[in-house]
Specification:
ten-stranded mixed sheet; about 300 residues; single chain; globular; Spore Coat Polysaccharide Biosynthesis Protein SpsA, Chain A; about 45% helix; alpha/beta
């Protein structure tokens, strides 16, 4: 892809941050090192109390825009970032995650091949406490709804107008708000497309996932989110509805036994693993391990 800025679409990389000073610089550098050059990088700081602001300010000389706001939540922080962005397309990059150098270039190329789609998502690497390649499946809105399996990460290249037309992230959803938004898109007829390359690096730390820390609350939240999207449920096949009823039976079982924490926790963790982590895991090849080591350098 040519890098003549006058002929290219502007792409916004939005980095929502709250107290991630340990990793923020690495995330910013992975954005600055994109092979596609017509980008703007926006760090939206959600009232951090650590050293985040000083770190972000060091990159303003590189053209990084810093937005400071009072502390609210991640959803609001993302929405503020999109509202202040100027690109036709944007991508969220959490302050502890990393982008492959060709992320923007390749996802934008894929967009050009699929102009009717609302967003492009990729395979991703999980690193930190584990080093695993997760292979997401091809886009299927009904499968997304039925399995409670958010095979689309929050980091996808999306059309800004689509995000705004659909209201952005709901601030009424405390977590899994990205899953809720992808269901909103599907319900309103906006679909995504998979680029079958691992171009995003998701940092996994101990206790990082809500599904691991609060499996019962996570299960309830998935149930509540699906209740919000009844129009999408009408598109399900009989087989898919049978699978969905199985999930609801499991939820009922947990509801009955939730007063017995040890039993509830045991079964919720088993169910959470089967439901939330239904992705193909592969060992990382040496080339990817080396690239990850380069991207995740402290300096």
């Amino acid at each position: 892809m040519k890098n003549n800025k006058s002929e290219e679409e502007l792409v916004s990389i939005i980095i929502p941050n709250y107290n991630h000073s340990e990793y923020l610089g690495r995330s910013i550098r992975s954005a600055l090192n994109q092979t596609y050059k017509n980008i703007e990088i926006i760090v939206v700081d959600d009232g951090s109390t650590d050293n985040s602001l000083r770190i972000a300010e060091q990159y303003e000389k590189n053209g990084v825009h810093l937005i400071k706001k009072r502390h609210t939540d991640q959803q609001d922080t993302c929405n503020v970032g999109v509202s202040r962005s100027k690109g036709k397309y944007f991508v969220f990059l959490d302050a502890d995650d990393l982008l492959h150098p060709q992320y923007v270039e390749l996802t934008l190329e894929h967009f050009k091949k699929n102009p009717s789609k609302a967003f492009v998502y990729t395979q991703h690497v999980r690193f930190g406490v584990v080093n695993i390649l997760f292979r997401s499946q091809k886009y299927d809105p009904c499968e997304l709804y039925v399995t409670s399996n958010n095979f689309i990460t929050s980091t996808s290249l999306m059309k800004k107008e689509v995000y705004e037309q659909n209201g952005g992230h709901s601030v009424s959803i405390p977590y899994f708000y990205d899953y809720d938004f992808y269901l909103t898109l599907a319900e309103n007829g906006f679909e995504g497309v998979l680029l079958d390359k691992p171009l995003f690096f998701y940092r996994k730390t101990d206790g990082h996932s809500v599904s691991n820390k609060k499996p019962f609350e996570a299960l309830l939240m998935y149930y509540q989110i699906r209740k919000r999207h009844s129009k999408l449920a009408k598109r399900l096949s009989l087989l898919q509805k049978m699978r969905l009823s199985g999930h609801y039976c499991s939820l009922l079982f947990f509801s009955i036994y939730h007063r017995i924490p040890k039993i509830a926790q045991h079964y919720c963790k088993r169910f959470a693993y089967k439901t939330f982590l239904k992705k193909s895991e592969e060992k990382l090849e040496d080339d990817w391990v080396h690239m990850l080591a380069v991207l995740d350098k402290d300096k």
